[in-house]
Amino acid sequence: MATTAQQAYDAIKKLEANNTFPLPAPNKTVHVGNFDAATGKFKYAIKTVTITETEKSATGKPVILKSTAGEIKLANVVNLRLQFSVTNPKGTFTVAVAGIEVSAAAGERSVTVDVGLSQSVRTPDGKISTVDGFIRSGTAEALLQFRIIRLPMVTGGAFTLPAVPIALVYAPPPGSQNKNFAEYSSMNASSRKISTSMSSGTTNKVGDAYSTTEFIDKISGLASSVQSFLGAFSIVGEDPLKKAGASTILGLNLLSGILSSTTTSTSTALTTTTEHDLQVTDTDTTTTGTPAGSGPGVGDRFVYLRNVKVAWLITNSGLSFTVLGDDGIRSFAAQQLLSDAKAIASSAGAVKSGPVTNLDAATLQMLLSLDPFVGNASPTLAAPRFVPNDPPSAVGSGTDPNGDVLSVSHDISTTDLSTQTSVTTTITDYKLGWLTALFGGNEAKENQTTLGYTSSIQNSVEKRQTATVFFFARPTDPPYAVGLYFDRLFGTFAFTSGQDVVLKKSPVARTSSLHQAVGSASR
Predict the structure, then answer these.
(1) How far is 393 from 265, CA to CA, in rounded Å?
(2) Which residue has the higher pLDDT, 55 or 114?
(3) Degrees (nearest 5) of the Cα angle 327, 487, 353?
(4) Which of 261-265, 380-384, 394-398, 452-456 has the lowest mean pLDDT?
(5) Average pLDDT score over residue span 53-58
(6) What is the signed CA dihedral for 495, 496, 500, 503, rounded to 10 degrees?
(7) What's the CATH code, domain 25-152?
């Protein structure tokens, strides 16, 4: 039985509760050692190891060099800080490690160097590299050398996101009749097209046949060869199978000699191709509308996934996560989110979640903060999130009772094509037979048929986002007028109030790959 998303989530949370994979410590400070400025010697406070290296002397002979280095082993630690102290200081106390140099303040006898994620690595010759530096007080100085060995860092867990927004459907200005509204549809289509083609070619060859006299001459010319060939196997005790094999070889040589002597031929060719296509397309469309006459910031619709369960993993290579599942899609107008947020705020802590959306105060605030029209009737819609549409505005009046319809769409399509061709097959057919051609007819005929097969698979994914807005304005009403913007974050369209809006396009808008179609029709 397959494990459900909830079961997987519960299992990860149990491991997390048992501290099976503890979270790494953000920082750790290690006291490396003390420097005696009076003697110029540094004493490690951590484990030390002996490092052996081989160098060539001036005479070319190998010289073995040994040095002492400190060694630090870390497990589940992100940021490393190294602390050094000094006794008998003689001046400014300075430490440099891994290219980072830090000096102590006046009167201080310790220095901490933040080396972050520094670590030793294994070199191509199999050795472990060292982190080098120096420590100095006045004129006294000593070299530093140590290894930082980090054990593989692995930790993980799971958490739930109360709401993950996937769309924000903007409501248009309400208009003089308070009837304007918008619909947003998202269409996803996936198609797979399989094409096959069969090709066949026929070639007819016609050659001059042997006459009876020519055939007899051929046989006579080979008679001595036949006798000597058979005589070679007259030894007593010779395997009769070898004699049979020799006779077969002789027969093949004879046929080869006869057939290869054809001198003239003519040919005709005919090729035909047949193609067959099979295409399957799956399409799903989601349509969401805004309340009529509510206007931006109140009638905007939030579409989000509820209770998204996420598993995460941290390793040396970084953070990765995967979505295990969710409780489905929810859609609410901004006025409902605002009402829930107000109910929580006015309850003095008695209400923990909104009565309509069942979301907590922090999640409600997160969603509302994504809408620039909430609490601001005339926000600035700036790049890179918002780019002006082309054309940038729509103005009109005198609509019929069904209103004017403005539709703006954004299309994305991807097509992948793979082709495979099979090996060509050739079939040869001898007409009449060579004996018949030799003695009973004037021509020897050969027909060759070639068959080829080709297949191709084309996978296409198409996504279309369409915002359809309905405007209502009688001849006696003021004209409706809106500015049009594309929201790159959600792939939807925002509408601002304005009369004959003129927008200056930014370089981002000119170079964007958006393909939009705008049309106006009477509904």
Answers:
(1) 77
(2) 114
(3) 35
(4) 261-265
(5) 79
(6) -90
(7) 2.60.40
Give the start-to-end residue ranges of the domains of the chain.
25-152, 211-260
Strand boundaries in 354-502, DSSP class E: 386-396, 404-421, 425-431, 443-471, 480-487, 492-497
The gap from C-alpha 499 to its chain's centroid, in whole angstroms, comes to: 44
- The per-residue pLDDT for range 109-138, each reduced to its tens digit, is 999 999 998 999 888 888 899 999 999 999
**Which helix (H) or strand (E) segment is 434 a member of?**
helix 434-440
**110-116 and 100-103: which strand pairing?**
unpaired
How crowded is residue 7: how many other Cβ atoms within 10 Å of its Cβ?
Answer: 12
Q: What residues form DSSP beta bridges with 414?
A: 461
Tokens of 237: 């005790």
DSSP annotation of 369 reads T
Question: To which residue do tokens 């400025």 refer?
Answer: 37
Does residue 261 have a pLDDT over 60? Answer: no
SS3 480: strand
Between residues 473 and 255, the one the model is more confident about = 473
Residue 519: CB atoms within 10 A of its CB come to 9
Phi, psi of 81 (to 5 degrees): -120, 130
Distance between alpha carbon 450 and the CA centroid of its chain, in Å? 43
Q: How far is CA 370 from CA 298, 313, 366, 381, 497, in A?
A: 13, 28, 7, 12, 19
Residue entry with tokens 């199999």 = 126
- Residue 179's pLDDT is 87
In this predicted model, what pLDDT tens digit does every residue of 206-246 receive, in sequence order? Answer: 655 555 555 555 555 555 454 554 454 444 445 544 444 44
Cβ partners under 8 Å of residue 99, min gap 6 = none
Ranking 1-10, 71-80, 385-394, 441-450 by mean pLDDT, the lowest is 441-450
What is the separation of C-alpha 214 from the centre of its chain, rounded to a whole number of angstroms?
74
Q: Give the pTM.
A: 0.55
Length of the chain measured in residues: 523
* Contact of 497 with 481, CB cutoff 8 Å: yes
Torsion angle, CA of 343/349/353/354, rounded to 10 degrees?
0
Contact status, residue 186 vs residue 168, Cβ threshold 8 Å:
no
**Rounded distance between C-alpha atoms, residue 132 and residue 395, angstroms:** 71
Q: Which of 86, 72, 92 is nearest to 34 (CA)?
A: 86
Kindly state the tokens that stand for 138.
């006045």
**What contacts 504, CB < 8 A, 6 or more positions away?**
none
